[in-house]
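Example 3.2
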Amino acid sequence: MRIVLIGQAAFGEKVLGALLNKGEQVVAVYVPPDKPGSRADPLKESAQQHGIPVFQPLRMRDPDVYHKFVELAPDLGVMAFVTDIVPQSILDCPRLGTIQYHPSLLPRHRGRSAINWAIINGDTVTGITILWPDAGIDTGPILLQKEADISPGDTVGSLYYNKLFPLGVEAIIESIDLIYKGEAPRIPQDESQATYEHPCREKDAVIAWAQPIVKVYNLIRGTNPQPGATASLRGRKLKVFECELIMQNVTAMPGEVMESSDRGIAVAGQGGWLLIKRVQPQGQPKINASEYALSAGLKAGERFG
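Structure, written as tokens:
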């Protein structure tokens, strides 16, 4: 089957490897333009190593992109981690259509920060969807879905790389097999169950210590590693990453530092407390919380804003 792969990063690279191992004919790869000063995209490097033509248009919706796409005469388009807007003309161009990976159980958590919001909202189950994309944002018919548990200690990083990443590669190959057999469904999404969240940015990740400690904990792990949960200490920004939740009532005020040790910084909350293990002071790299506390001379009784 003649396949055009649109994607980027490690996920796109693994999908390409799986397609080639399966014996598929990948006739072209589309990746975003190189960023000045950054290393080449892994998908781009892998495609070049295999002699596959690589295209890096500034925007997929530019007219010249469509004309070249038609010349490739693809049987199937595969979208593996795509952040650009792909126009309907390109989606419809392949003989058998285009399929797309999305890291949630659609129609829940449409949008580019699906993993962040699933954890922030306290979901215990998520998964991946392979869909037939259309002109909407993650609104096309569903081809295949696979579930994954969200463990209490999962972060965006662990949930993606340990669960949704390998599930997605596997599901794309399984979906292509169904297409070969003529058994690939097109199940309409239930719009009554749909949710859409905007991209998770720093302004969405400000810690409100007065909230229940479970919500604070979910916000921190739902923004780890990006964009990081933002706290304020001594009038300066401090991003919080790794932490441990202890469900134990405390008498200290929410946001109050109870103690610091070689294990981290203990901070009180509503209904429990957090042991903060990794932070990023303003304008500095990430460091262990114990190292930060020692260098800053942090004392019990100080309070996060």
